[in-house]
Amino acid sequence: MLETLDTAARPLPLSEVADATGLHANTVREHLDALLDLRLVRREAAPSHGRGRPAWLYRAVRRTAPTSEYAGLATALAATLHRTSTQPVQDAVAAGTEWGREVARATGRPEAADAHAARRQVVVVLEEMGFEPEADEDDATVRLTRCPLLDAARRHPDIVCGVHLGIARGALQEYDADDSAVGLEPFAQPDACLLHLTGDLTGHRTERLTQQEDRG
Question: If pLDDT is split at 50, 70 and 90, which confidence band does 17 have?
Fold first, then answer.
């Protein structure tokens, strides 16, 4: 069942998972609930088409947490940036923004063209990068319960957290959404950082470029 979701090109409703696996819908529902508890699957509401409660769509969570070698490299790069840059936080955010755009481009665009769908897709990007995010109902505030580069973040929180902030901004930019109100609270909770995603759909590339130039 997890392989079915992992190889699907889009999130699947329960009925399609049942058809693909040949299992009864009730059996599929039980297994999906178990996969949700294990954070191996993400559930999101399907676009509404009239009255009634929208169906749930399921997608596999792809985990790409870095190895210890990459974590060590990240720590070394963060230390170098901290030592040599005249504006290390701004440079870290800028690097993260480019990274976020690349990952968002590879992950794919949201099915709907609205701010909520863009935020939801950013949460998917964070899942695939290994942050184990927990979003609220509107995907406006996201708990990042795992840091793929925790050691580097503890040594150089301004640099690493700046990169993480930039990732969210870059992903929103790639999805034509306003990133100006994005904020990150590092270690806001004992077991999580808080990422705040807000803003309206811009829909204009020229506006995004202007925002980037203003930050520079």
Answer: very high
